[in-house]
Design brief:
The protein is α/β, with parallel strands linked by helices and 411 residues long. The protein has two domains: 100 residues, Urease, subunit C, domain 1 (Roll), CATH 2.30.40.10; 298 residues, Alpha-Beta Barrel (TIM Barrel). The protein is built from twelve helices and 17 strands. The strands form three sheets. Strands 1, 2, 3, 4, 5, 14, 15, 16 and 17 form a nine-stranded mixed β-sheet that branches. The protein is globular, with a radius of gyration of 21 Å. The relative contact order is 0.17. It binds arginine (ARG). The site of arginine has 15 residues, from α8 and α9.
Length: 411
């Protein structure tokens, strides 16, 4: 018989934006939620987990991670590490992410299908980590943000394998990601910050290439996340029909209007700037990259506020891996600083994030029938959303991973 559990807490936020429930009880059978209510009686034979004055929320969802890597010395990483180094470390990052209350992630780019291998290991119970919607390789143009630029042509440092040019090649690249298990497709629509192109934001695909990529991905029933900083590239990606704009730094009024018209989600990594400016000089990043970050940081935050105010759909995504995995909750406070209410920030990381992934029937809300992915913080996050930087309790699929702020040993 599946295990029956009851979780009780002073307050429950269900992920839909509805007013919080007091004196909440969640009943769980096996890996699913069976009932949610205020003051529900605890049925006989049910183990009670009493979280006292804590607030329960759905497990959080980060819609933009790079779970196979973490920032380090720029040149050391380039010449002394390969995808194998990344693969042996990835499970540690997955564990930290889960213990930070993130029970699902959308991984937007990894070397050599590490994210897909990790997903399999987590799904079969070998590794403790979040559910993963994995992209495999990010797909982008030669010399662009998904490629390595600036290395010596004679050094033969392997770039990433998501490079594709021309409509036929991008279609093939999409099919390859799907073939090896990608649940989502990442398109690099414009130049980036943490790569050596001169521009931050110039389009890196033609409209035809973007159209072909999105058409192909959608044909295989995969959503497309577009890395896009630049004003023009953002609009091209929206017109191509992507499901989300990642970063969105230099979006203008027309871009905001287009996003609303197309129902495109904005996933803006607005915590990142603080970490990059504080640490990346020390990590020997080229001056050019630091300069590009200074160009992006504040504008991205101002435009995030503008877009949110205009009613663009917002989903939570942080670009974890640029900053240390496990700090995923830090962006909550940034989002409130830049225009969201605490409840809106919570919904962006729960109900809305699940919708963007197409996983709304299984995660992102506390409701009967969904996976019992539940977390708790000890204070009231509606007063202070930085509560999400200290997670007291983590349950994923009915299994408790963290309780009383302590990571439980795994049987
Ligand atoms: N991966 C992104 C890029 O290299 C990170 C951008 C970080 N900066 C920011 N302000 N969000 O383009």
């Amino acid at each position: 018989v599946p295990k029956r559990l009851a979780i009780r807490a002073a307050q429950l936020i269900d992920g839909t934006g509805a007013a919080p429930l007091r004196d909440a009880v969640v009943l769980v059978e096996g890996e699913r939620i069976t009932a949610v209510g205020s003051g529900l009686p605890i049925p006989a034979g049910t183990e009670l987990i009493d979280l006292g004055g804590a607030t329960l929320t759905p497990g959080l969802i980060d819609c933009h991670t790079h779970i196979s890597g973490e920032s380090g010395d720029y040149y050391q990483k380039l010449v002394r590490e390969s995808a194998i180094d990344a693969a042996v470390r990835a499970h540690v990052y997955a564990g930290r992410t889960l213990m930070a209350g993130f029970t699902s992630i959308r991984n937007l780019g990894a070397e050599d299908f590490i994210d897909i291998a990790l997903k399999k290991a987590i799904d079969d119970g070998s590794v403790a980590g979040p559910r993963i919607d994995a992209a495999g390789h990010g797909i982008g143009a030669t010399g662009g943000h998904a490629d390595l630029t600036g290395t010596s042509p004679y050094l033969h440092i392997d770039g990433f394998s998501g490079v594709a040019d021309g409509v036929e090649a991008v279609r093939l690249k999409v099919r390859e990601q799907v073939k090896y298990g990608a649940g989502v497709i990442k398109m690099v629509a414009t130049a980036g910050v943490l790569s050596e192109e001169d521009s931050v934001g110039a389009p890196q695909y033609t409209q035809e290439e973007m159209n072909a990529l999105v058409d192909e991905a959608h044909r295989w029933d995969r959503k497309v996340a577009a890395h896009a900083h630049g004003t023009e590239g953002i609009k091209m990606a929206i017109k191509a029909g992507v499901d989300s704009i990642e970063h969105g730094s230099f979006i203008d009024d027309e871009g905001i209007r287009l996003m609303k018209q197309h129902g495109t989600w904005l996933v803006a990594d607005i915590y990142n700037d603080d970490y990059i400016l504080a640490e990346f000089g020390r990590l020997n990043y080229p001056q050019k990259i630091l300069d590009k970050e200074r160009l992006v940081g504040r504008t991205q935050r101002e435009n995030f506020r503008k877009a949110a105010k205009a009613g663009v759909k917002i989903a939570y995504g942080t670009d974890a891996g640029v900053y240390p995995h496990g700090w995923n909750g830090k962006q909550m406070a940034k989002m409130v600083e830049w225009g969201l209410t605490p409840m809106q920030a919570i919904v962006s990381a729960t109900g809305s994030a699940a919708e963007l992934l197409g996983w709304q029937k299984t995660v992102g809300r506390i409701a009967p029938g969904l996976y019992a992915d539940l977390i708790a913080v000890s204070g009231d996050p509606l007063r202070d959303v930085s509560e999400f930087e200290h997670i007291a309790f983590v349950m994923k699929g009915g299994v408790v991973y963290k309780q009383g702020g302590q990571v439980l040993p795994r049987a």
